[in-house]
Amino acid sequence: MVRPSLRVAKTRKRRTPSETKLRRIEKRTKKPHCSNCRAILHGVAFGSRNRVKKMSKSERLPTRQHAGHLCSNCLKSAIKAEVRS
Ligand SMILES: [Zn+2]
Questions:
Q1: Which of 84, 82, 75, 80 has its CA nearest to residue 37?
Q2: Residue 20 CA to ligand 1 centre (angstroms)
Q3: Which of 3, 14, 33, 42 has the fewest CB neighbours in a 10 Å radius?
Q4: What is the DSSP string of 19-53?
Q5: Burial status of residue 74 (CB atoms within 10 A of its CB: 0-12, 13-18, 19 or more)
Q6: How many whole angstroms from 78 Cα to the centroid of ligand 1?
Q7: How far is the centre of ligand 1, averaged over its atoms, from the C-alpha of 61 (Å)?
Q8: Cα angle value 7/49/12 (rounded, 5°)
Q9: Ligand 1 geometric centre to CA of 53 (Å)
Q10: Ligand 1 centre and the CA of 48: distance in Å?
Q11: Where are the domains of the chain?
């Protein structure tokens, strides 16, 4: 178990008619970015690991080369540069 001071998930109090409950709030994750130009990648799943794991494989990543690393523009120019060299 993680030491309480190092925990990332925060807890909030939530009042219900009978009692006050503690609710865990997951850490917000950033959207995935292109490793070349830092543009936001579309079609790439993000969020908690539990949420991503429940998705189907085709929902998590596009099915092309360098999906999840390069945006479509950077991939296009990388393929062109490789063919021309
Ligand atoms: Zn890019």
A1: 75
A2: 47
A3: 3
A4: -EEEEEEPPP-PPPB-TTT-PBPTT---S-HHHHH
A5: middle
A6: 10
A7: 16
A8: 40
A9: 26
A10: 24
A11: 29-85
Distance 15 CA to ligand 1 centre (A): 46
From ligand 1's centre to the CA of 72, what distance in Å? 7
Cα of 79 to ligand 1 centre, how many Å? 13
Tokens representing residue 72 in the block: 């479509």
Burial of 78 (0-12, 13-18, 19+ CB in 10 A): middle
**Residue 17 carries which side chain, given as an amino acid letter?**
P
Question: What pTM does this model have?
Answer: 0.65
What's the pLDDT tens digit per position in 5-59? 887 777 888 888 988 888 877 777 899 999 999 999 999 999 888 889 999 999 9
